[in-house]
Write a structure and sequence with these properties.
The complex is a heterodimer of chains A (142) and B (427). With 142 residues, chain A is an alpha+beta fold. Chain A is built from five helices and five strands. Helices cover 35% and strands 27% of the residues of chain A. The longest helix of chain A has 21 residues. Classes of the chains: A alpha+beta (142), B alpha/beta (427).
């Protein structure tokens, strides 16, 4: 029997009514697994931000969540436009979200910074015109 | 805590074993086993949804009979503000209160009076604890229990102030002891309640080490007793009212939040809506709100399952009754001084947990996923669990088996009969 469990979620493009579905599903699973509430908070916020990013910027994508007794790994993969300047995108308040998205209350430029803040490890690989893969890890024990 | 008390119970002879309640229960606490509904006590939050939905009236709330008054030398009625919304053409709350005295109570103490004090205390607490914003109302016991078992990250946001009825009970007992000189056990403090969850809050309180309430009567049972007594009281009601617009407003949704005199709040009612708000709140989707009022029942307390009137009509009636009342009648400075803060820590109770440790949880969760793949995902309820996933979790917990699923069973029987017929041919 394997010591890990993997869950895969499809994130649809431009469907705000479904944005957050994947992270809320993961949240409910983690609760049932008895994961520490603080860890759940970190995972669900980091993943929600990532999920919203995929909806706004990346025409959707897939998220793999791998849970082991030691850590929770989230791999967010999209075939979107890619991030031109990762360093700039990581700055709090920097956003390329279009106006129609901003009027929905998104696009405050806190997506990537919050993902970094709430995960213990974060790695971004992005190729312009090809897509972006964000890997985040949250440790089960601090 | 550990001793799970729930006030909802089943009248077995009436239960037909249908799937109405298992589908409606917001915490998936009910299963049909051997043709009868069974409530898992740890999962039940006493919201009363199953009582509302059961077409066979097989679900019942536990509450006391008016006979309980005879157990005490001196009794005080604590009418919930929602009680006043039950009557047609009521113009003076004192008529209801006088009728309660005629019913046999020695005194009445309006819960709405204590609610005004709770509003005052909450106003101060909310302003002094910005780090805890948004504070979540703790007046609805179902909501508090829900947070305790399902939203661990929100426990720190709970407003640690007694619910109005608990404060009313403490104040009423103190007043009665002073007035009569009787010891506390000879005084009966009886709540006239719109909801079964308050019964649970008496038996196993959250946030308080004990409850000062001795008995709980249902509004729907007191209602027919009060009607004739109210007619007798119309001409000469006693002056017993101790609350104004703020206190009475607590009877329906938005009343408590409105009493904080800030418009930076959210008020949600109906258990499914409450759960949605809590989920979003947990994901930190609302910031800068000061206060969140949540009521398990649609419409607020007027929507409780032990009430008689349509909740929305009851709300209108409360609004009319309040119209010419002063803003508030009970104030802290009036010399009422009772400790109104919680004195017991509220701890997360992970009742839905699937394993003893992470390794076991991971294994069990994988097994749940595997089983879900096998099931037809119709969520038909024929197995007695509300969804295929709930059945999978039950199997992993060891309380159900795969062949409880009638579709799996059917395939199994087909396979069996195929094999039997093959045996037949071989012969």
């Amino acid at each position: 029997m394997s010591d890990t469990i993997t869950m895969t979620y499809e994130v649809p493009a431009d469907d705000f009514t479904r944005a957050g579905e994947a992270s809320s599903n993961v949240k409910s699973k983690l609760k049932k697994m008895g994961v520490d509430p603080d860890i759940i908070r970190k995972v669900s916020i980091a993943m929600y931000e990532g999920e919203i990013n995929m909806v706004i910027h990346a025409c959707g994508g897939t998220i793999d969540v791998i849970i082991s007794p030691e850590e929770i790994e989230m791999i967010l993969k999209d075939q979107g436009p890619g991030i031109e300047n990762i360093e700039l995108a990581m700055q709090a308040g920097y956003s390329t979200a279009p106006d129609n998205i901003r009027t929905l209350g998104f696009g405050a430029g806190m997506g990537l910074p919050n993902m970094k803040k709430y995960s213990d490890e974060m790695n971004i690989e992005s190729v312009l015109g090809v897509g972006t893969t964000v890997t985040m890890k949250v440790k089960m024990f601090e | 805590m550990g001793n799970f008390f729930t006030s909802v119970h089943l009248k077995e002879d009436l239960c037909m074993g249908c799937i109405n309640c298992i589908k409606r229960c917001p915490t998936q606490a009910i299963r049909v086993r051997n043709g009868k509904a069974v409530i898992t006590k740890e999962f039940c939050i006493d919201c009363g949804e199953c009582i509302r939905i059961c077409p066979h009236h097989a679900k019942e709330a536990t509450y006391d009979s008016p006979e309980i008054m005879k157990k005490y030398e001196y009794t005080v009625a604590l009418p919930a503000p929602s009680l006043y919304g039950q009557f047609n053409h009521l113009e003076d709350i004192n008529i209801v209160l006088t009728a309660l005295i005629k019913m046999g109570f020695d005194d009445v103490f309006e819960v709405s009076g204590a609610a005004e004090l709770v509003s005052e205390i909450s106003r101060k607490y909310v302003m002094e604890h910005k780090e805890k914003w948004p504070l979540i109302s703790t007046a609805c016991p179902s909501v508090v229990r829900l947070i305790q078992v399902r939203f661990p990250n929100l426990i720190e946001h709970l407003l640690p102030v007694s619910a109005p009825v608990d404060l009313a009970a403490a104040l009423a007992r103190e007043k009665a002891m002073k007035k009569t000189g009787l010891p506390r056990e000879k005084i009966g403090i009886i709540f006239i309640s719109p909801c079964p969850a308050k019964m649970t809050a008496v038996k196993s309180p959250i946030g308080l080490d004990h409850s000062e309430i001795d008995g709980v009567l249902a509004i729907k049972e007191v209602y027919p007793i009060l009607l004739p007594l109210m007619k007798q009281s119309i001409d000469d009601p006693q002056e017993l009212r101790i609350s104004g617009r703020i206190g009475i407003g607590w009877g329906s949704t938005g009343g408590e939040a409105g009493s904080l005199l800030s418009d930076n709040y959210l008020a949600a009612d109906g258990i499914e809506n409450v759960i949605k708000v809590l989920e979003d709140l947990e994901d930190q989707k609302f910031d800068q709100l000061e206060f969140i009022e949540l009521n398990a029942c649609a419409g607020g307390c007027v929507g409780g399952v032990l009430t008689v009137e349509n909740p929305y009509l009851a709300k209108v009636k409360l609004l009319r009754l309040r119209k010419y009342l002063p803003i508030a009648c009970s104030h802290i400075s009036n010399g009422m001084d009772v400790d109104s803060f919680w004195n017991d820590e509220v701890k997360y109770e992970p009742v839905f947990k699937l394993g003893k440790n992470m390794k076991e949880s991971i294994a069990n969760m994988s097994r749940v996923d595997e089983l879900c793949e096998k099931f037809p995902r119709l969520d038909c309820g024929s197995c007695g669990a509300p969804t295929c996933k709930a059945l999978a979790e039950d199997i992993v917990r060891g309380v159900a088996k795969e062949q409880d699923c009638i579709h799996i069973l059917r395939d199994y029987i087909h396979k069996l009969s195929d094999e039997l017929s093959k045996l037949d041919i071989k012969k």
